[in-house]
Amino acid sequence: MSTKRVYKIVKTFLNYGLDELLPKKSLPWYVKLIRPSLFWLRNKHKDKPLALRFRLAIESLGPVFIKFGQMLSTRKDLLPEDFANELSLLQDQVGAFDGQLAKQIIIDAIGLETFNLVFQNFDLQPLASASIAQVHTATLTTNNEEKDIVIKVLRPGIEKTIKADLQVMSRMASVMASWLPDGKRLRPKEVVAEYRKTILDELDLNREAANAIQLKRNFSQGKELDNILYVPDIYSEYSHKNVLVMERIYGIGVGEISTLNDLGVDMKLLAERGVDVFFTQVFRDSFFHADMHPGNVFVNANDPADPTWIAIDCGIVGTLNREDKRYLAENFVAFFNRDYRKVAQLHVDSGWVPAGTNVDEFEFAIRTVCEPIFNKPLAEISFGQVLVNLFNTARRFNMEVQPQLVLLQKTLLYIEGLGRQLYPQLDLWQTAKPYLENWVKEQMGFKAVFNKVKDNLPFWNEKLPEIPDLIYDYLKKDKQLIHQQQEMFIQLQLQQQKRHKQLILSIVLATTAISAAIIFS
Predict the structure, then answer these.
(1) Helix (H, G, I), strand (E, B), or coil: what is residue 424?
(2) Which residue ranges run through the membrane (predicted)?
(3) Pairwise CA distance, residues 243 & 228, whole Å
(4) Three-state SS string across 434-454, please?
(5) 3-state class of 81 per DSSP?
(6) Catalytic residue (one of 77, 291, 313, 427)
(7) DSSP-based three-state secondary structure for 288
(8) 473 is known as an active-site residue
(9) Is there a binding annotation on residue 220?
(10) What is the pTM of this model?
(11) Is 73 labelled a binding residue?
(12) Has 135 been labeled as part of a binding site?
């Protein structure tokens, strides 16, 4: 870990006065002693609010901290509202690196001969540039067919920079876990570990390619709702760990509201389809795009009455296991029905709050927070905000942060934000409720049992001929076991009889010895 980098981070934090965030009562004596001695690292931004100072400090520390701040901006269960709002303004804007260097990286990855053979019209000027990679356009020529493509190239040396900053973050998280009064519940080390896994996954473009191929397959198998999301083709034969070649798309940015309106796009349908995309990925496929911010989402408006979503940059995906999906769906449905008792009980059953939690008190706390919200028209209620309020309530009952739900919560907030931006009257509850209710029935009803039996039929079909032999072997072994038990019982009886005789002999000898001693005396 670079001492120079650590000093820069500490200097930045102190120059923006972020030491005010540390609870003075919890600080060790030596930290209180050291701070005044660093007199040259004074707060230079006293006139600014603390939340603004926090964002400015994050921006000045570079891409790794910026991405971490962007992730934290979705964790309103961890941060005060003003901090979350400031972090949501973080922009991942980084100057492009030299196009010739990008071209050389591509050649080193796939070979000069292949590059010259299949890539034409390579544009040295990048189409887009971000903190981890930048994108160049080109034409792919294969089988006498030309296709417009984009080539994503990782920044040279970015992996070393990221790993060094992650090491610093891990140290800082350990300190926070020890010093903060709420450190155990907030689990800063786990949050950083989850972020570490996420950002390191982004450094392997082969993984992003595999994620995109999987997501495309999930929405192109003739299933219901498969026409609502398009994922560009991936040319994996020309891709590498630091180079990704994919189809170029010409959709309209989801944030270009005026353009979409001018084209006459059905905004209500588009917004509702965004909700469908989210719940389909999570509850049908258990595999969801977890970075659906406006820069990664476009709209195909060729048919304004039937618009579809386009998703790019699949470097971050999330998954949920069967139990988490079931608890989550049941929680949502219970919220829709205002069954706060069930919400409280589900949190206990799932282990999200300690087993000894008083369910009655927890139910009352949830009701107190949620009832005022539900007095509004459903179309005005923020789905994400309800979850945030729930998590804030659960904090009082020692609910720990669930790392497996971090990406899900972040994605839900993105989707709801995009949906409301497209169609402010979006009733997310009405759109989602039928989907979730049907999913719960499918997972817990007769149909679910039938499907599980059907799925296991190949296994039982293979094992069925073996069952008579297995029964015979079991009965034979059972008979042998009974015989062995009988022999063991007989041996045990013989040993007891032997010990009994030895005991009687010992008593007789002891009695004789005592009697002889008395007579002699």
Answers:
(1) coil
(2) 503-520
(3) 28
(4) HHHHHHHHHHHCHHHHHHHHH
(5) helix
(6) 291
(7) strand
(8) no
(9) no
(10) 0.70
(11) no
(12) yes
